[in-house]
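Postdoc handover notes: sequence design on the structure in folder B. Input tokens:
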């Protein structure tokens, strides 16, 4: 899939938007292949909206609560994205499950960051799940969004050790550092057309070249 020289990106948030901020900061670089053209939230009180506005980015809330169903909210969201000329949607703590129609409309053009090494620990409370499972490595994953929750083709991952004495909070603190490093790099790959989908998977040869994986910082 080809994009314009600067891919127009919308970031969707539901809260404070810490991953959003990391992407906004990265996109300030002149050679970054994406521009953050819009920030949308389903919660008018989301702190990330103010942070986006302070960065000079158009920020808008579309409150999901007045809508009769998921499809009608998704239609409003889709209209706002298309009105802004968005090429690529970037989910950053957006706590809504999309209708299948919305996901299909943005197939190959919507990515998400999830706080686990997928396919392990889908859904919520991933750090608690990791500790309960006794894994020694945990981390985060950037993936394309598909109708099945947290099941899309994987673009990039970063791992952290699970240390003795960890609780969900300490583990989350270690993972979020990697999220902030990983997401801007993964978004840049997608925006530049270097992480294409082939037969339902990311073409890693195109994404990484001979130097190996994108991220194990």
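Designed sequence:
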């Amino acid at each position: 899939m080809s994009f314009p020289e600067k891919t127009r990106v919308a970031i969707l948030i539901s809260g404070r938007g810490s991953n959003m901020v990391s992407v906004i900061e990265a996109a300030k670089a002149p050679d970054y292949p994406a521009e953050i053209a819009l920030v949308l939230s389903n919660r008018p009180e989301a702190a990330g909206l103010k942070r986006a506005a302070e960065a000079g980015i158009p920020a808008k809330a579309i409150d999901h609560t007045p809508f009769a169903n998921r499809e009608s909210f998704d239609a409003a969201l889709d209209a706002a994205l298309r009105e802004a000329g968005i090429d690529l949607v970037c989910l950053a703590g957006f706590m809504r499950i999309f209708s299948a129609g919305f996901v299909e409309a943005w197939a190959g053009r919507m990515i998400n960051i999830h706080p686990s090494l997928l396919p392990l620990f889908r859904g919520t409370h991933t750090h608690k799940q990791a500790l309960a499972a006794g894994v020694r490595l945990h981390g985060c994953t950037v993936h394309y969004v598909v109708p099945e929750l947290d099941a899309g083709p994987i673009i990039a991952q970063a791992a952290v050790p699970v240390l003795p004495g960890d609780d969900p909070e300490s583990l989350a603190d270690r993972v979020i550092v990697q999220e902030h490093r990983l997401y801007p790099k993964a978004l840049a790959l997608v925006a530049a057309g270097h992480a294409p989908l082939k037969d339902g998977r990311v073409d890693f040869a195109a994404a990484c070249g001979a130097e190996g994986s994108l991220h194990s910082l």
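Context for whoever picks this up: The CA atoms of residues 21 and 52 lie 8 Å apart. Don't rerun without checking with the PI first.
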